[in-house]
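Lecture notes, unit on protein representations.

Consider one protein chain, 242 amino acids long.
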Amino acid sequence: MYAVFKRELFSLLNSLMAYITIGVFLLVSGLLLWFFPDTSILEYGYAELNGFFSLTPFLFMFLIPAITMRSFAEERREGTYILLASRPLTEWQIILGKYFACLTLILFALLPTLLYYYAITQLGMPKGNIDGGAVAGSYIGLLLLGSAFAAIGIFASSITKNQVIAFAVAVFLSFIAYSGFDALSKIFAFDKLEDVFAWLSINEHFLSMSRGVLDTRDLVYFSTFILLFLGSTRLVIGGRKW
């Protein structure tokens, strides 16, 4: 699996698309967080990063599919997946190697945003006047959210040879998982289905973690969600190989 991980990570780092998507993510989040009056922390007047954590999931909906869209789609289009599948590797090793390479790139995109936290601690009155537990929980939630979107992206890339289609499918599924079920829970308010759709929504569990409390129910949800889409990828690849 390590060989696949290293190969995929080097392939991503040698790709201009990875740098463009990470650069756009940092640029947009920085502009919205510090410069645009309607969303600026400086205009808000409170030492917190809630604006950043509420904005990032929507940026992730486009950033992560752009990273994962080439995982299997490009391999199938160029015919290199046949060579990869002929190696003494299991399908799970191939999937997880590509998946963890995408997660590493997502982590690279999030690391520079720690400067936002440092800046807020320095700007607070008094200095350091920020809820560190809520920030830590929100960052853990973002990593789990990114892991879930990456699993969706890997699955979308496995069902088509076209990277654009893989990108579009991943964006659509990510939006449904994050906002779609949340909207349905509000539509079916005061109904038995409200709790079901609320539990299915990624947004519900992300908000729970952003309060600084790590609930085992949220961890189980994200683990199940990720395994569901990675398992679906395994079925698609296994069926096509057969």
